[in-house]
Design a protein that fits this description.
Deoxyribonuclease I, Chain A, 19% strand, 2 domains, 370 residues, 6-stranded mixed β-sheet, alpha+beta, 5-stranded mixed β-sheet
Length: 370
């Protein structure tokens, strides 16, 4: 009886191991289908599951070549997963220097994907009042949400609103003057993005770009082609910037994905989470399945004063608050990411996939400025 139980336990452990191995290997394939790319997201969950399973296999004791092979491969997968996650823990060096005292000029930003069907506007309004940010970037805002945020707009110096009756409306509310605010459609004609200059009290102009590309999901889009293309197309646009830049929003991608890393290297922007934490923001209602989908990247002109994931406001996303300090001397503190020829070729390959897809759909296909 003991043999039967132990044998059954080993079979179960091997089955789990094969699942975690598959979840590690699938994202290595250059395919945009959501069922493959979705495994970019749960690297923390796969790491924990793989570690527990590996421990179980070692306790039970592998007794055949196949079982030993599973142990070795699972161990390699665990190391691979940890390598992706480690930069987003305090064990790694920070990429953005912490601001000391009052150095630099402060600019604070609250990002909140309100989740369009969510009607708990009171929680969002209370949060805005408590946090009192210089800038409030709201995502998934339909006309109902724009009306509920009317008091916020009245109290602000400037605002840019673009409601949509789907999941892609956006709005920016600012206590600071906006310079040349515009809504652009980078890749798809129904997926907007916000772009504007922000005039600081000193007179310096900082450029803010709010993005919310379509996610890889069977109900939104079966693949990641448009999402990847929007991120990389925009990365090229800010690559040769000559002014301070902040990019923020729900990018529907995790920090450690292939596309996110490529975005950072091409754009040369910094990630304040590196060396500090993962900062999971989605899904707010399922603690075991949370991922860092809401992002802030910025140029080397800033140091970090504060970065925080804020409490639940009825949405499937947690809000994110960041305070940066602009300082013309800050670039001396930072080493910007760089891109090599291979990565440039990868970017072009991703954009070419979008062009081919648009060509197949014909001139009536939904497409933006690309």
């Amino acid at each position: 009886m003991t043999f039967v139980i132990e044998n059954g336990a080993m079979i179960g452990m091997v089955g789990l191991a094969l699942f975690f191995i598959l979840g590690t290997v699938l994202p290595l394939f250059s395919h945009d289908h959501w069922a493959i790319r979705i495994f970019d997201f749960p690297r923390v969950q796969i790491s924990v599951g793989a570690a527990v399973t590996l421990g179980g296999l070692l306790v039970l004791g592998p007794s055949s070549f196949g079982e030993y092979a599973v142990v070795v491969v699972l161990g390699a997968c665990l190391v691979y997963q940890i390598d992706h996650i480690l930069p987003y823990t305090p064990l790694a060096p920070t990429q953005v220097r912490t601001a000391m005292g009052n150095e630099g000029e402060s600019i604070s930003l609250l990002i909140c994907n309100v989740e369009r069907p969510n009607r708990d506007a009171e929680s969002v309004l209370t949060l805005i009042e408590d946090v009192d940010p210089d800038l409030f970037l709201a995502l998934e805002t339909d006309s109902w949400w724009i009306e509920k945020l009317r008091d916020v707009e009245v109290r602000c110096a400037d605002a840019l609103t673009h409601p949509q009756e789907d999941e892609y409306g956006m709005a920016l509310y600012s206590k600071l003057p906006l310079v040349g605010p515009e809504v652009r459609f980078l890749v798809e004609e129904d997926v907007p993005s916000i772009h504007t200059g922000i005039k600081l009290p000193s007179g310096a102009i900082v450029f803010l770009h709010g993005l919310h590309p379509r996610p890889p999901h069977p109900t939104h889009g079966p693949d990641t082609t448009e999402r990847d293309a929007e991120l990389l197309y925009f990365a090229r646009q800010v690559q040769d910037r000559d002014a301070p830049v902040i990019v923020a929003g729900d990018l529907n991608d995790v920090s450690w994905s292939y596309t996110a890393r490529l975005f950072q290297n091409v754009s040369g922007l910094l990630d304040p989470r590196i060396g500090r934490g993962i900062y999971n923001t989605f899904h707010a209602r399922y603690p075991l399945f949370r991922y860092p989908l809401d992002h802030v990247f910025h140029s080397s002109d800033f140091r970090l004063a504060e970065l925080e994931v804020l409490p639940y406001v009825g949405s499937d996303h947690f809000p994110v608050y960041v305070e940066l300090r602009y300082d013309a001397e800050a670039p001396e503190d930072h080493a910007e990411p760089t891109v090599d020829d291979v990565e440039e070729a990868q970017v072009q390959h991703e954009l070419d996939k979008l062009y081919e897809k648009q060509k197949e759909r014909g001139p009536s296909a939904s497409q933006g400025e690309t």
